[in-house]
Amino acid sequence: MNVPLESMVDTLVQLIKIPSPTGHAEEAIQYLEERLEPFKNQIQLERTAKGGLLATLAGEKASPTRLLTAHVDTLGGMVKEVKGNGRLRLTNIGGFAWTTVEGAYCYVETRNGERVTGTVLATHTSVHVYDDARDQKRTEENMEVRLDVRVKNADDVRKLGIEVGDFVSFDPRIEVTESGFVKGRHMDDKASAAILLELLIQLVKEGKRPLLDTHFYFSNYEEVGFGANSSIPAQVREYLAVDMGAIGDVLTTDEFCVSICAKDSSGPYHYGLRKNLINLAEKHDIYYHVDIYPHYGSDASAAVRAGHDLIHGLVGPGVDASHANERTHTDALDNTYRLLYHYIQTESL
């Protein structure tokens, strides 16, 4: 098995550089589609009504089928108010603490496609002015965007084309270190999307087929809870979400492993599928950990909650400081890729 690690990292960096807050991920989906276009004779491509991308690779057997999914939508913001002082109040897209974006560079995309840069700040930032600069609660009402344009009031801002409802993307500050770490925002879940894309391309280039017809579903609404919970082909029996593995106290997942989730806030994942994944990891000497994520939900659990009768599971590369200044390692990409490669060669439960 040839693991295209360099290509995975390059794809991850390219994906992270493409802004794609939930609800406005078209450019990221288009990037994936363009990467797969040269292989359209071997891969069936379909856009869903919600704008996701479903890529199907024929296997040795046509039924039942399995589905692997990763999402390209990310955390972000939306203009909630154009303030009288020329600054912007935001509402969050996805679940993050405002402390994690304080000081972040960002840009606002207007409805005509113009991008205006700025910085996310607390309203009482200056320690030279405000008694509560250190203690002010970082909540929605106390955060604002300072635009990099001379504006004095709301009218000046609106002349730029900025209005309520415009999307705001945070600068990912992506960097790959010599030691193999990949750090920045939005490893969740563009790391997994890069793995799935490169796995699919590698299979086609090498003329290899999975055992079963396999769908690769790139979703675009996961961060708000309903990414790949629809447009699931009728014959799908096993549904594996590939999403970041959480790291923290009590958990064993680290930045180098593929994490196999036993349970998250939605409840347990399918026990038989979990055991199958563990057996594959041990058989092929793949570094893994099994964990329980206390504050987490995936597209797999969303699909089951939507009423689909599925064998569902969740795996992914370990990511530190999730929904903040994230970091993973190329080892985690490698281990996740290898587990998925072997998984798609197995019979369905």
From TrEMBL:
The keyword Protease applies. Keywords: Aminopeptidase, Hydrolase, Metal-binding, Protease. Its cofactor is a divalent metal cation. The keyword Protease applies. The active site is at E222. CDD domains: M42_glucanase_like (cd05657). GO terms for molecular function: aminopeptidase activity; metal ion binding. One of its GO terms (biological process) is proteolysis. Binds 2 divalent metal cations per subunit. Zn(2+) 2 binds at D188, E223, H323. Zn(2+) 1 binds at H71, D188, D243. Belongs to the peptidase M42 family. This is Putative aminopeptidase FrvX. It comes from Marininema mesophilum.
